[in-house]
Amino acid sequence: MDEEIARLEGQLEQLIGLYQAGREQSRELRQRVALLEAENRRLAGKLQLATDRLESVLEKLPEL
């Protein structure tokens, strides 16, 4: 009986450790996603600005 309880305690501690590691990994991944989304928005803004500038230049070119 004591051996069974000790085995179950060990399994429970292992499960708790895995759960905590999973939570930490999930938190880190959420942070990473937030950073990548912010970078994506920044780059999309730069791309839109470049597109607008290029369209402006093309509009000023004479037609052939």
Summarize the structure in words.
The structure is a single chain. The protein has a domain at 28-55. Helix content is 92%, strand content 0%. It has one helix at residues 2-60. The longest helix is centred in the middle third of the chain and has 59 residues, at 2-60. The model has no long low-confidence stretch (mean pLDDT 96).
Contiguous uncertain segments of 5+ residues: none
Helix content: over 70%
How much of the sequence lies in strands comes to: under 5%
**Which geometry do the CA atoms define?**
rod-shaped
Number of strands: 0
Biggest sheet descriptor: none
Write down the Rg: 28 Å
Separate helix tally: 1
> How would you spell out the order of helices and strands?
H
For the termini, the CA-CA separation is 93 Å
Helix-and-strand structural type: mainly alpha
Q: Average the pLDDT over all residues and give the rounded result.
A: 96
What's the gist of this structure?
The protein is mainly alpha-helical. Helix content is 92%, strand content 0%.
Secondary structure layout plus pairing:
Blueprint: H1 2-60
What structural keywords apply?
92% helix, 1 helix, mainly alpha, 64 residues
